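Quick one, tokens below:
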């Protein structure tokens, strides 16, 4: 039985001010290096406290379809998150996710974690989540054999076109 009891999403600024602890995992999502940067191959890392149980770092842009040279959240990114969650699901009490503003990518990932582990999630705070990130995670969860993810009726009532049950 997984031991997760909470998931939260927040901005990078807030995440970098937090003190780490060994019973919480952290997923850090930042934009990839910009083309023309001094070292475009060197990924930027949020300055998180090193005392977190484990930190998974991802570099993707906040987009929901391919656009120019931006990096779209991929099946591989979803697999990294899912395998990391499965690895730590009996170890951590909670998972915190941050992105630049704490509104879109981090909300999508935290929403996904809340759905698959049956955790509380404040729908009002996460309404602007990146649907591509959320849908990709749900699709890969099912494809990896962990079951369907039931999407909330609350979203369907708002008219969001992405509300669905995976596998349909």
């Amino acid at each position: 039985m997984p031991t997760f009891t909470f998931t939260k999403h927040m901005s990078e600024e807030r995440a970098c001010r937090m003190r780490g602890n060994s019973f919480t995992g952290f997923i850090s999502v930042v934009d990839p290096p910009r083309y023309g940067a001094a070292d475009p191959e060197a990924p930027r890392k949020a300055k998180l406290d090193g005392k977190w149980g484990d930190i998974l770092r991802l570099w993707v842009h906040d987009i929901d379809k391919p656009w120019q040279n931006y990096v779209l959240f991929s099946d591989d990114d979803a697999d990294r998150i899912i395998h990391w969650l499965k690895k730590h699901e009996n170890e951590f009490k909670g998972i915190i996710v941050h992105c630049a503003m704490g509104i879109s990518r981090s909300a999508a990932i935290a929403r996904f974690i809340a759905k698959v582990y049956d955790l509380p999630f404040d729908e009002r705070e996460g309404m602007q989540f990146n649907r591509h990130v959320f849908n990709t995670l749900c699709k890969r969860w099912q494809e990896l054999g962990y079951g369907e993810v039931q999407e909330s009726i609350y979203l369907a009532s708002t008219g969001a076109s992405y509300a669905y049950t995976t596998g349909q």
